[in-house]
Structure formats: structure tokens, C-alpha cells
Write a structure and sequence with these properties.
Blueprint: E1 2-11, E2 14-24, E3 28-33, H1 40-48, E4 55-60, E5 63-64, E6 74-77, H2 88-98, H3 104-113, H4 127-139, E7 145-149, H5 157-173, E8 177-181, H6 185-188, E9 194-199, E10 202-208, H7 209-215, E11 216-222, H8 223-230, E12 235-241, E13 244-250, E14 261-264, H9 267-276
Helix pairs in contact: 3-4, 4-5
Length: 281
């Protein structure tokens, strides 16, 4: 369990996280979404104890987290993390020797499944394969909390598909809290169990994926009829095109009139409209 209570992290006068309170209580694959500079990396570094908060408290499984008390049951991996220049098989064995909970069988099976040559030294691998090695080692650690920061950087479309398969297989093998920061929103939609959106250091949304799918939709139609139809609902953005408008809504669905059309909204469209949408009057 991860608990943050009124956590703020300042760099000078800039608040990277701003009075965040967040409670993650159950295992799941949590998709962490935000624009560049929104606070995603800072949030993960705070949870891992890599940096300290300016104010507020953070705990993992009831133990307070600080830079002097970094949680042993949390693994945080930044984008482009490097490894010792050893053969992949040796890296796996070293990780197994250092971590009593390391699942060497899982690491070897994943390397075989994704056609990773374990005889090659780390520095001879492509950027994408280096990232895959680090991801496998991290997920094989079986830590209570795993956080991956932009793990699909440098992956082509096939490798990204393989990554999501790896993520799902790891979670099914050992359910725990896995937080994945990514900009490829629609790709992870089918893998994530929960969504966390952050913008300007504040949490905008924290919901399970089924609730997001159920409550995110748009209503299209003539502007006056649309205004009446969405009155009282949580409208996150409105686009006007002449006499017609499109309202993006995150709320319980309400039946529209004959001249209105309701349609679903992808996670990517929801994110864009929540962090960048404006009601255009």
C-alpha cells in the first residue's frame, strides 16, 4: 500500500508536486499520465525515496519513506537506465544473487519469449533491447511496488506490444502495485487496471479503468440543445463548430435528445481534454 498525505516538492519557487494526497491500496497496473513537467517522475522518485518531499508524509506498507529510509520493497527504474557491461545471463545471475526474491526462472523465460540473446553483453544491445533487459530484471524482482518511468522509449511497435505482454504476464505471476509512466496512452489502455492523471503537480483523476471507460464520453449536436443536455454534468471541455458543439463529459451517462449523439471517448482523448481542453464560449 502506498500513502501520500499533503505531499509537496519544491524546486526553488516551482512546485513539482502540489499538496498531493493519494492512497493506492490494492495490486494493479497503474497508468500514470501527464504532460512533460507535470510531476510524474518527481512523484515516483518521492515514493521510492530517491528524493525527499518539501512537506507532507509518504509511506509504503505502513513504513515512512525518506531518503534516509528508502523502502526495500520498492523498485523504481528511470528511462534509459544503464547496467554493468556484462552478458545478459550474468546480469540475471547477479540480480538473483543480490535479491532473495528475484525470480530467475521468470527472467529466463521472458528473455526466451522475447528473443533476447543472453550471451550478448549489455553495451552491444540496441537501445530497445537494453531497456527490455532492465525491465525484465525489475519485474523479476517481485517487489511489492514496481515503478517504470517511460519504459517503452526506443521500442518499435512490435517491442511495445511485447512489453505490454510482459507487463501482464508479470502481474499475473505476482500481483502487486505496478506504476507505469507513459506518453503512449491508448496503447496501455487495454493493460492498465487503473489510471492516475497528474497536471501541474496536482492529481486530476484517479479511477479504475472500467469507471473511466463507463463515464468518459462526448455529446455532439446543436449548441443550444447540447447545453441543456449536459447541464449539471461534469463537462471537461467544449468544442464549437458553427451552430454545433461537442461536449466532453466525465460523469454518469445521461440519455440525449433526438438531435444529440453520444459516443465513447478513448483514454487518450480524455487525457487531452482534461489537461488541455478549454470551454469555448
Amino acid at each position: 500500500m502506498i500513502e501520500l498525505v499533503k505531499v509537496t516538492k519544491k524546486y526553488g519557487s516551482t512546485k513539482a508536486t502540489d499538496d498531493i494526497s493519494l492512497s493506492i491500496k490494492k495490486p494493479g497496473i497503474y497508468c500514470l499520465l501527464g504532460r512533460n513537467g507535470a510531476g510524474k517522475t518527481t512523484l515516483m522518485k518521492l515514493i521510492s525515496g530517491n528524493i525527499s518531499s518539501t512537506c507532507g508524509e509518504i509511506s509504503v506498507n505502513g513504513a515512512r519513506v525518506t531518503t534516509f529510509n528508502m523502502p526495500e520493497n520498492v523498485r523504481y527504474i528511470e528511462a534509459a537506465k544503464t547496467q554493468f557491461n556484462m552478458r545478459v545471463s550474468e546480469l540475471f545471475k547477479m540480480a538473483d544473487g543480490l535479491d532473495p526474491d528475484f525470480d530467475l526462472d521468470f527472467a529466463n523465460r521472458m528473455a526466451e519469449k522475447f528473443k533476447l540473446d543472453k550471451k550478448k553483453k549489455y553495451n552491444s544491445l540496441s537501445f530497445g533491447m537494453k531497456t527490455m533487459v532492465t525491465t525484465i530484471i525489475t519485474l523479476a524482482s517481485n517487489s511489492d511496488v514496481v515503478m517504470l518511468d517511460e519504459p517503452v522509449l526506443g521500442f518499435d511497435a512490435i517491442m511495445r506490444k511485447q512489453f505490454y505482454e510482459l507487463l501482464q504476464m508479470s502481474f499475473e505471476s505476482h500481483p502487486r502495485i505496478i506504476i507505469v509512466s507513459t506518453h503512449l496512452i491508448d496503447e496501455i489502455e487495454n493493460t492498465a487496471t487503473d489510471v492516475i492523471m497528474i497536471d501541474n503537480g496536482k492529481i486530476l483523476l484517479f479511477e479504475d479503468i472500467n469507471t473511466v471507460i463507463e463515464k468518459a464520453y462526448k455529446v455532439s449536436g446543436q449548441t443550444e440543445a447540447l447545453k441543456e443536455a449536459v447541464n449539471g454534468l461534469n463537462v471537461i471541455a467544449v468544442e464549437k463548430i458553427g451552430k454545433f458543439s461537442v461536449a466532453y463529459v466525465f460523469d454518469t451517462k445521461r440519455a440525449g435528445g433526438e438531435d444529440l449523439e453520444l459516443s465513447s471517448v478513448s483514454l487518450g482523448d480524455l487525457f487531452i481534454n482534461m489537461v488541455g481542453g478549454e470551454e469555448n464560449e
